[in-house]
Amino acid sequence: MIFGLFALLSTLISAESTTNEVTRDYCSLPDAIYADGVSAADFGATGWSYTNAANWADFVVTCGGSFQSPIDIITTSSAQEAIQPQINYKSKDASTGYEEANKPYTKEYEGEYSEIEVTDASGSVIRYYAKQFHIHTPSEHTIDGKYYDLEIHFVHQAIQDDEQDCNKVKNKLTVFGIMFQESSSATDYEAFKPWFDSNVTGEIDSFDLNDFFSKMSDATYYHYNGSLTTLPCSQTVNWVVFQQPLPISSTQLKQFQDFLSDSTLFPIKHNNRPIQNLNGRKILKGTAITSGVTEIPDVQGSFAQIIAMAILITLLIQ
Ligand SMILES: [Zn+2]
Question: Any signal peptide, and if so, which residues (predicted)?
Fold first, then answer.
């Protein structure tokens, strides 16, 4: 009897644990896009680098298109956006960590964040999954001509499911850009440490993406339609660039800069694409709501496990 119950319990528990595996369906992209646009093996191998960024259209014709990124954001010519979006990453499973992606041209994590709703430049609300984030130094976007020390890109890809028709999603990628500026009063970000810790094997514990946004006292952003900033330069990105830079310590900034000191891969010691022409595109301005963001939930026993344990205890004490 007891053995039968154990068998039943283990079935219940293993059935529950398999439901934790994340399977996601994304809107397909027009190009064979791998993460930030290009596979690690292609960097350098096919001839593109930041030294020939003016000639990327020779490699992929899209890179010479009219809606390319990054751009200089002229704050005085931006129009107010009607909808004020909420930055609120939902219910990340605390047991799911991040993997370091093997990219020679940036530092990048890939993870399994849950969905976020984002309003695109036409006013439509689109649901995305957060997929990865990576860094550029110095910044790619400039604000009124000013470069910042570093820019993080949070990359989100639109969800394919019964509730969202990918044919109606114009911008299948939304990227949030956050600026960082060196500051003597900055404390180190835990999230960045594993990139440079030789004792870590490319995997880090979960952390909350909301933390970056909750550190902003002013969540003013600029919003426009653009492209990936690496090959294949696909013009399918809904860009949201935040104005207020977050502080970064000299130590952590130098770690990123030193990463770009490989004279073969980075003879010019940066990984930011030059500013592209706006070509008449509209830039919208707004302020995101970042208060009241969700926390990562504690790992708790599943309902099935709790019920199963209660049955077992009841039977054992009889
Ligand atoms: Zn990027």
Answer: 1-15
- What are the structure tokens assigned to 266, written together? 């980075």
Low-confidence winner among 43-47, 130-134, 153-157, 259-263 (lowest mean pLDDT): 43-47
Rounded distance from Cα 69 to ligand 1 centre (Å): 10
DSSP class of 43: T
Between the CA of 70 and the centroid of ligand 1 the distance, in Å, is 9
The confidence score (pLDDT) of residue 33 equals 47
| Cα-to-centroid distance, 136 and ligand 1 (Å) | 6
Cross-strand pairs, 242: 221
CA pair distance 290, 294, nearest whole angstrom: 10
Domain residue ranges in the chain: 23-298
State in Å: Cα 134 to ligand 1 middle.
6
Q: At what angle do helices 303-316 and 2-18 cross, to 10 degrees?
A: 170
As assigned by CATH, the class of the 23-298 domain is: alpha beta
* The pTM of the whole model exceeds 0.85: no
Q: Greater confidence, 86 or 256?
A: 256
For residue 220, the CA-to-ligand 1 centroid distance in Å is: 20
Q: Is the pLDDT of residue 83 over 60?
A: yes
